[in-house]
Amino acid sequence: MREINRYDKSREYYERASKVIPSGVYGHQGPAEGCFVPVEAFPFFSEKAQGSYFWDVDGNRFIDYMCAYGPNILGYNDPDVDAAAAEQRKKGDCITAPSTKMIEFAELMVDTVASADWAFFAKNGNDVTTLSIMAARAYTKRKKIVFFKGYYHGVSPWTQKLDYPGIIEEDVCNNIYIPWNDSDALGEVFDKYKGEIAAVISQPYMHGNFKDNVLPAGGFWQRVRKLCDDNDTVLIIDDVRAGFRLDIAGSDHYFGFEADMICFCKALANGYNVSALCGKDFLKNTISGMTFTGSYWLSAVPFAAGIACVTKMREMDIAKVLDEKGKKLRDGLVGAAKSHGFDLRVTGAPSLFYLRIADDPTLSLHQRWVAECVKRGVYFTNHHNHFINAALSDEDIAETVQVANEAFEVVKKN
Amino acid sequence: MREINRYDKSREYYERASKVIPSGVYGHQGPAEGCFVPVEAFPFFSEKAQGSYFWDVDGNRFIDYMCAYGPNILGYNDPDVDAAAAEQRKKGDCITAPSTKMIEFAELMVDTVASADWAFFAKNGNDVTTLSIMAARAYTKRKKIVFFKGYYHGVSPWTQKLDYPGIIEEDVCNNIYIPWNDSDALGEVFDKYKGEIAAVISQPYMHGNFKDNVLPAGGFWQRVRKLCDDNDTVLIIDDVRAGFRLDIAGSDHYFGFEADMICFCKALANGYNVSALCGKDFLKNTISGMTFTGSYWLSAVPFAAGIACVTKMREMDIAKVLDEKGKKLRDGLVGAAKSHGFDLRVTGAPSLFYLRIADDPTLSLHQRWVAECVKRGVYFTNHHNHFINAALSDEDIAETVQVANEAFEVVKKN
Question: Burial level of B219, CB count in 10 A (0-12/13-18/19+)?
Answer without folding.
Answer: exposed
